[in-house]
Structures are given as C-alpha cells and as structure tokens.
Design goal:
single chain; alpha+beta; Immunoglobulin-like; 3 domains; four-stranded mixed beta sheet; 22 strands
Length: 411
C-alpha cells in the first residue's frame, strides 16, 4: 500500500473510532411525578459530558419540556407526554442551562456542562463514581422509613423533601458515601409514597431485562412487546423487581427433550385487547382474557358513554359511566391512556342536568385526580351524543391541558 493511501486509511479509522467514542447521558424528566430533572448517574440536575456527546431526556411523567435558556443553543422538545424521549448533541464546550416551560417558575431547571474533548487530567479519566455500599443505603432507607411517613405525608413532594433532609444529614455525618446520595434520592422519588392509586410497575423485556417505573394506575402498567409486566406490592422502584411479587426471570435452558408450555394470554387486565368498550372491559383471569359485561342504569338504559378528548398534547379515549336521577348526574369517569393529567380509572364524577331549547346542559363538578390536578368539564347532550370543552390545572393553578371532547352513548 502506498504511504499516502495508508495515511488516509489510518485517518479514516481514527475518525470512526472518535465517532464511536461519543457517549449519551440520560436525564429523567419529572421522575416519580416530581418537578425535577435527574441525571441517571448523579441523581442531580447537573449533567456533565464531553464535546461531541449527547444528552437524552426520558419523560417519566407528562406535561414537561426540556428547553434551552438561550435560544442560540438551539434545543426545545416542546411540552410532551410520557413516554417520550428527546436527544440533543453538544458539539462545543460550555455550560448550557435549560428549563421546563410550564414549571420553570417552580424550579424545574437543569444544566449541561460540556468539557473540552482535549482534557486529559486525572479527574477526567477516572470512571464515574458509583455507590458500592448497599449496607449503608439500606440503613439510611430504614431511617427514611422511620422519619418520613410514606402514606401520611401531605403529598409526594413533601415526602421527597423529608427523605432528602435525612439523606443530607446522613451524608454530613459520613454515615453514607456521597456517591450513594443519588441512589437514595431516586428510591424516594421513584415511589408511590403519598400518591394514591399509583403503582410500581416492573416490566420484563423479551430478553429477560427488568426495569421499573411509577405508573398512575395498574391499567397503565403495560408490558413491553414480547415481555411481561407486573404490579409490585412495594412502594419504591428500588424494591419492585426481583421480589416475591415480581420475581426475577428464571434462567432457561434448551433441550431437545423438553416441551414448550403454552404462553398465557395475559398477566393483567391491561394485556387483554378491547374489541369494544361498550361490551365492557375484559378481565385477565388465570392467564386467560374473559369478556366483560355492559353497564346499565337502574331503569335499564345503557350507562356507558365512550368518546375522545382532544387536548393540547394528544388525543385520548375517555369513558363516562353515568346515570341521571331527578336531574342529578352521578357515576365514574375513566381515561384510557397515559394522558396528563388524566390518570384516572373509575374516578367518581357528579353533575347537574338542565333542560334547554338546544338540548340538555350538564355541569359537572371539578374532577380531582390523585396527582392533585383537577379538570372541569361542561357538556351539551343532544340525542345520544355529549360534547363540550374541558380545562385542567395543576395543584398550583397552572393550566396543563385543555380542549374539546365528545362521547356517544353505547347502544
């Protein structure tokens, strides 16, 4: 090979090697329903990368964005609903602050620190600091359990703040390594503490890899393609997978003499396909999907109304199971997808019906969800169709969604 061609080939290999060395750091958006950004490695809102690396934001809860403070930095995911991922590459060194558009005033901010690619100091060549003291972590988590009331805290954020104070005191007293602070905080934020109706969902991929996330209901704990999902009896994702309720996947071996058992149709109700909501939601019983039953009012009329809500971020299926007695409307409301803040499954709903020239106007009372968010519906009923507007606000009164909706009564 001629020298100049050998040099060109060597440069090509070096370029490929340099591209292959680029890393991607992951930042959780709104972990556990908190208004925070959390770097997966450090547990803080600061992410450190090198020139050419990328940061991937992963939505753990809905209604958030990752938006650069400086327009010239050039990234804005827009307000998104979970599950969602957004990746941005950082080609130049510097400090890049960012925020969540709806919650910046509430302190939901973060920063990406990009180091020059040429840095060769000892500190940049060390591996990432990791927590290697499970005994200390278990001891501090026991202290958190004693000091912070998982079920009785005013709300989830208050529980996380209480846990953070315990972690800080333990770190200051050298009772736990500083590298374990992120692990401890994630155990608190990724929990169902003071979040009624929420569950720790343990998912197992087709390859046998388990992961946990906090979901607003058992219905939202969906299995990955080819895998399975399990609703844990533990409050924290740190304990959800691998226990008695959601055991680790068993190791399997292949043999020419072994037979394959039939796979169950389902593990939970959400695994069963819904042919028609008007026929009632199917149930998972003994690994088999069993058809549901239709809903009727005491006078024999169908009680179920199924339709769509067209919100700021997406369209979702909604269902009212309501009956009317002497002008008073009562029943339940369900939102059948991961729509922010519509995390309700069979939440009670009440209203009053007024008869008018154009039809029947129904004024529903505000529907308050387990997250503290509230939605207000109005409705005009004409024949077998209801339609109207809705608006949803968070516990602080900020509008998080709004739009129009419609529903048709099941036959």
């Amino acid at each position: 090979m001629r020298p100049r061609y050998a040099l060109a080939a060597l440069l090509g290999v070096l370029c490929v090697a340099a591209q292959g060395g680029a890393a991607t750091k992951v930042v959780e958006v709104g972990p556990g329903g908190t208004l925070t950004f959390a770097d997966q490695e450090t547990g803080t809102s600061t992410t450190t990368v090198t020139e050419g690396d990328s940061v991937q934001w992963v939505w753990d809860s809905s209604g958030h964005s990752t938006t650069s403070d400086r327009p010239e930095d050039g990234w804005d995911s827009g307000v998104q609903a979970a599950p969602f991922r957004f990746t941005h590459q950082f080609p130049t060194a510097g400090t890049f602050p960012y925020h969540c558009i709806p919650h910046q005033s509430l302190g939901m901010t973060g920063v990406v620190v990009v180091r020059p690619a040429g840095e060769t100091t000892t500190s940049t060549t060390l591996p990432p600091i990791a927590c290697h003291d499970p005994g200390a972590v278990a001891a501090i988590r026991a202290q958190i359990d004693g000091a912070c009331d998982c079920a009785g805290a005013p709300n989830h954020r208050a529980y996380v703040r209480c846990a953070t104070r315990v972690i800080r005191r333990a770190t200051k007293a050298h009772a736990v390594p500083a590298a374990c602070r992120g692990t401890l905080r994630r155990c608190a934020t990724r929990s169902t503490c003071r979040r009624p109706g929420f569950v720790a969902c343990c998912r197992t991929s087709a390859g046998g890899v388990q992961s946990c996330s906090i979901q607003p209901s058992a219905l939202a704990c969906q299995r990955p393609r080819g895998g399975s999902a399990c609703v844990s009896d533990q409050s924290s994702c740190c304990d959800a997978c691998g226990g008695a309720t959601c055991p680790a996947p068993a190791a399997t071996t292949t043999s020419s003499t072994t037979s394959t058992l039939p796979q169950p149709q389902c593990f939970m109700d959400a695994d069963c396909p819904v042919a028609s909501l008007c026929d009632g939601g199917p149930r998972c019983l003994g690994g088999l999907c069993v058809a549901g039953t239709a809903a009727f009012c005491p006078d024999g009329t169908p009680a179920l109304w199924v339709g769509t809500a067209n919100g700021l971020t997406n369209d979702v299926t909604i269902a009212f199971r309501i009956c009317t007695t002497d002008g008073l409307v009562s029943g339940t409301f369900a939102c059948l997808s991961d729509f922010f803040p519509c995390f309700a499954v069979d939440s009670p709903i009440f209203g009053t019906a007024f008869f008018g020239i154009d039809g029947i106007t129904i004024v529903f009372e505000p529907l308050v969800f387990a997250t503290g968010d509230a939605c207000t519906f109005d409705a005009l009923l004409v024949g077998l169709t209801m339609e109207g507007d809705f608006i949803c606000v968070d516990p602080f009164g900020f509008v998080v969604s709004g739009g129009t909706w419609n529903a048709t009564r099941c036959p």
